[in-house]
Amino acid sequence: MRLLEEILCDSNIALAQSRVTGNRGSGGVDGVMVEDLSDYMSSKWADIKASIFCRSYRPFPVCRVEIPKEQGGHRKLGIPTVIDRTIQQAITQVLSPVFEKEFLPHSYGFRPGRSCEQAIVQLLSYLNVGYE
């Protein structure tokens, strides 16, 4: 099966939609809320899928918000639409298993089950045994 077909197959999209719905979150600039995703996908998915296959699909702009930091100030956050998050999740579900096996065990950035805290602990371990 071609990669794009695997990403856009109904079962993968259904799983992605379930994960996006489970994560809850805010809606994006198109006004579609997470709780509306199922109905929206039922009525629009065939057209969206066709536009992806013919390379005319364009993601929506992200909704920019500022979140207050505990120490003061704000952190900028971009919120994609729930449709774009569903497509991103579907891509991740297919590509992550392909590329995850290529990463070295000491790679921590943006990987499942890995965190910056784990990277720091590993770094301290290296420093304690004399690596510089």
Characterize the largest beta sheet: strand count, sense, and whether it forms a barrel.
Answer: 2 strands, antiparallel
Mean pLDDT: 90
Strand content: 5-15%
Quaternary: single chain
Biggest β-sheet: strands ordered side by side in the sheet: 1-2
How large is the count of helical segments?
5
Total number of beta strands: 2
- In angstroms, what separates the terminal alpha carbons? 47 Å
Low-confidence stretches: none
- Taken from the alpha-carbon principal axes, the silhouette is globular
Helix and strand run? HHHEEHH
Cα radius of gyration in angstroms: 19 Å
- Structural domain tally: 2
Q: What is the helix fraction of residues, given as a range?
A: 40-55%
The secondary structure category is mainly alpha
Describe the overall structure.
With 132 residues, the protein is mainly alpha-helical. It has two domains: 3-101, no CATH class; 104-132, no CATH class. The chain contains five helices and two strands, in the order H-H-H-E-E-H-H. The chain has helices spanning 3-8, 10-23, 37-53, 82-100, 116-128; strands spanning 63-68, 74-79. Strands 1-2 form a two-stranded antiparallel ribbon. Strand 1 and strand 2 form a beta hairpin. Helix 2 packs across helix 4 (82-100). The longest helix is centred in the C-terminal third of the chain and has 19 residues, at 82-100. The protein is globular. The termini are far apart. The model has no long low-confidence stretch (mean pLDDT 90).
